[in-house]
Design a protein that fits this description.
globular, single chain, about 260 residues, 13 helices, mainly alpha, two-stranded antiparallel ribbon
Length: about 260
Amino acid sequence: MSRGGTKDARNTIASGSLELAPAHANLNFDFTLWKIAAPKEFEGVGSALSTSRRDNAERGMLHTIARKLGALFERKLPLTPSLTRAYGTRASEIVQGLSIDGRGRKSYGVFAGRAGADATSLWAAANSRTSAFAVHLLACTLARIRAAPEATSIWVEIVKRRKEEVVAEFDKSDTAHLATLSAARQDLPRAQIAEWDDSARAWLRVADGVKKKQQKQLMLIVDNVQLPVIWKTDTYGSVMEAWSNALTQVVAWVQGI
């Protein structure tokens, strides 16, 4: 294999885009092994985080959760590069005035590691798969409209159903996406999902605090907009349809379509 071919193979494995045949079905993808550089639009978010929060987002539990969820749902969601860039730019603007320098952080004493803006799940998503950003947006949506226990239960249900779906597809076609199948076979306990939900809520508190006026204006508009309601008794089906439709619609708004 040429040097270029070797590099391409490494990139393929790192991204988890390798297709597996049954003979290789027991290969396990390590979601903490590779870090994906965050888009430049999110750089302001990373620089505003405390060392402990940044470490959690880049190498810790939230990083692993973001990568697992991103890999699990990646092949079910539309690509959103324009939305990702726009969101990163706005998020960096939001946290810009909340950054704390080293001297200021020391003044918080034992709470220094938790001082400043909490955008841990957002930074974790930015340093993970591109689909992890969409997962972060769903976490924010559920956190906005549901109490924590209910939102966590919804996550548990859709994760369970998606895992079953991935395994069933592999059993039927004898091929699978490496990262997706690996995510479907790895444990993602409720406690970790609850941590993901809690981090999304923390980011919403930060963003709402900075954009109080804009948030109030937005909610007045939203409350007066008649949107079609997806009536399905199946939680997984209704969430996936609403999630995909919302991403497509917001991308269109961002692009001015």
